[in-house]
Amino acid sequence: MGEAVELQNVGFAYAQNGFSKSVLKNVSFSVGKGEFAGIMGKTGCGKTTLLLALNGIVPKLVKGSFQGKVLVEGKDVSQKSVQEMSTRIAYVFQDPNDQIFSLTAFEEVAFALKLRKLGEKEIKKRVENALRAVGLHEFQQQDPTTLSQGQKQKLAIATAIAMDTPIIVLDEPIASLDYESAKHVYAILKKLNKQGKTIIVAEHDPEFLYANASKILVLDGGKIAVEGSKTVLKSKLMSEFGLRRLK
Amino acid sequence: MIKYSSGNSTLHNTNAKAKILAFFTLTLAAAILPFEYAALLLPFALFLHAISKTPLERTAWKAVAALALFAFAVQIVFRSQNGVYYGILNAAYVSGVILLAGLLITTTKPGDLRDALMQLGLPKKHAFMLTIALEAIPLLQAKAEKVRMAQNARGSERKLMPMLVPLLHSLFERAKKLSISLEARGFSPEKL
């Protein structure tokens, strides 16, 4: 089993009004193919930036100075466009309102597939399967803005499922969901992982990550503070980060 | 705000392309015909509104009234004779056109509207922009409501600038994040 994702000494500083704000400092880690990896840390520790670096959005679409190398399935991301990377990595944003723009749930999921020039039958099949997987099959023709926040998040996940990429990256997918919806989202992710997808999730709540991820790393101030399997991490997380809800 | 309202009236079930063509034919014909005939658009539009059973919100009626008043004032100012008479007819014509346009939007699903416009020759790129604009309207509306409540909760009265600044900020933020999310799904303008 090779590496799905590998970061080598990655550093990034946002360029803001002539100033530079460093968010990632010399980060190195890897996630194996088929692994379920979790990235934890406080707000502003660099989780989102790290995820955006995986498919090249950072630094290609976000201004700043970038160091190091990101490899996806052994290939240097800097040599590929963000569009090319969309066939390898599907990205689910923290707030689904930032990515949903279509007039129906069906169209939203079909968007990336149409760009790939897939046939109509194939698109219909993939969209229906993806919506069924997240429990939104009956909302196919509904305006996404009328869905609840939890349903919108599931719709965003359905777009990733339909893209059928080997790697799915999610930025705090349960940040604005209730407990039951959060449980459902993680059940979907676990199922996708069992189907062979590599799942990488950034999360500030350790409970779900600890229950589902096989590998966890904790970011603190743009650096990796702790990394390893959950068994190794348990005592460290509890003692160093005061996480008492882990079972 | 004028937006699609689901229903099962004859107008809801009429083909979107037919509705668009009827709208343009009627408004253009009324623009060519004398004012007396053009003013008939208003009772016709009110009749269609009644049978479509899609009541407009109070703010939409206010906007229609404001534009009708403006149309009335234009005739008063620029006509040397019978200004009031032509002002009333012009106000009726303008209100009729706006109400018909509103009717088109409130009885046609946004997706059907876009597809029909594309079938009538709207370029794909413009249809894509229209989709984003149509979807942004309810989001902006919801955001405006939240901003208004937040301002009220802090004791602020209704003022334009305190509303406008966070609204514009969120609009630009959404545009930035949406463009990133589109590219992450393989979008590039050349693909349209």
How many angstroms separate the termini of chain A?
A: 29 Å
Describe the oligomeric state of these chains in a short phrase. heterodimer
Question: What share of the residues of chain B lie within helices?
Answer: over 70%
Q: What is the domain tally of chain B? A: 2
Mean pLDDT of chain B: 87
Task: Give the radius of gyration of chain B.
Answer: 20 Å
Fraction in beta strands of chain B = under 5%
Q: What is the number of helices of chain B?
A: 9
Shape of chain B: globular
Mean pLDDT across all amino acids of chain A: 90
Task: Summarize the entry for a quick read.
Chain A is of the alpha/beta class and 247 residues long.
Describe the protein in words:
The complex is a heterodimer of chains A (247) and B (192). Chain A has 247 residues and is of the alpha/beta class. In chain A, the strands form 2 sheets. In chain A, strands 6-7-8-3-9-10 form a 6-stranded mixed beta sheet, sandwiched between helices. Chain A has a 4-stranded antiparallel beta sheet with strand order 2-1-4-5, with helices on one face. The longest helix of chain A has 16 residues, at 179-194. Chain A contains 9 helices and 10 strands. Chain B folds into 2 domains: 10-116, no CATH class; 123-191, no CATH class. In chain B, 77% of the residues lie in helices and 0% in strands. In chain B, helix 4 runs parallel beside helix 6 (83-106). Chain A binds chain B through residues 52, 55, 57, 61-62, 82-83, 85-87, 89-91, 93, 95, 97-104, 107, 111-112, 115-116, 143-146, 159, 163, and chain B through 4, 109-111, 114, 131-132, 134-136, 138-139, 142, 174, 177-188, 191.
